[in-house]
Amino acid sequence: MTVEDIIVAPELTPSLATAQATLQQTLAIIDLLSANATTPTTLELQRTVARQNRILQAYLARLKQQTRRTAFIARSTKAQTADARREVDGLLLQLQNLYYEQRHLLGEIAACEDYPHAFRELPLVDEEEYLEHFPEHEELDESALMERRINHEQEERDRIDEERKELVKRKDQLVLENTRRKEVVKKMDEKLESWVDGLAKLEEELKVAL
After folding, report:
1. Are 171 and 94 in contact (CB under 8 A)?
2. Which positions make up the signal peptide (predicted)?
3. d(C-alpha 179, C-alpha 175), whole Å
4. 31-36 LR contacts (CB < 8 Å, sep 24+)
5. Which of 3, 38, 50, 139 stands 20 to 30 A from 81 (CA)?
6. Distance between CA atoms of 205 and 147, rounded to whole angstroms?
7. For the segment 3-42, what is each residue's pLDDT rounded down to a tens digit?
8. Angstrom distance (rounded) from CA 124 to CA 121
């Protein structure tokens, strides 16, 4: 498996190409020095080594700049992950509130089902409050008004249940996205640390070689 097979993120491709070019340039300098190790150092050889070293320094400068850019991308991804985590936490809190409200409503429904005349004991919105929201129902008789109030209560409970389902769905999506982003950040951090370590080692070896 090659490095290209491991590193597939588009934002890392330029850094990988520069790192490979830097490695090839370093090997070229080492080969040049090795080939002339047993011969006297000539002015032409010094010029050639100096020229090749300037090329290497240019590659190193570019690699350092690209590494900084990659680090910035990693920090940005971490910030996005943190935002997603906060959103998930907020959704979880809303979901807990909905679960509490649902348990409360289910408890009230169960209590009502235990009575033969449950419609008179349903925990409906107070009649006066209901008519404030629906003044057009003031002229209805008691039976019709009770039916409208019961239907209204059912609609409200259905609405709450739909909101709960949507929150659960949104939470699951955010958890998956959060997990994916954390994996991306982790891999980028590992690659950055590996490159930085490799760059430091390369610079030390060049200092010794030159």
Report:
1. no
2. none
3. 6
4. 33/209
5. 3
6. 87
7. 454 455 566 778 788 888 888 989 988 988 888 878 887 8
8. 8
Structure tokens at 184: 């991306």
**114-118: Cβ within 8 A, 24+ apart:** none
* Tokens coding 15: 């850094």
| Helix residue ranges, H only, the chain | 3-6, 13-35, 43-113, 118-121, 127-133, 142-209
Match 């011969």 to its residue by tokens. Answer: 39
Amino acid in position 173: Q
Nearest CA among 100, 97, 90 for reference residue 175: 90
How many residues are present in the chain?
210
8 token code pair: 């597939």
What's the gap between Cα 154 and its chain centre? 38
- Two tokens, residue 141: 């008789």
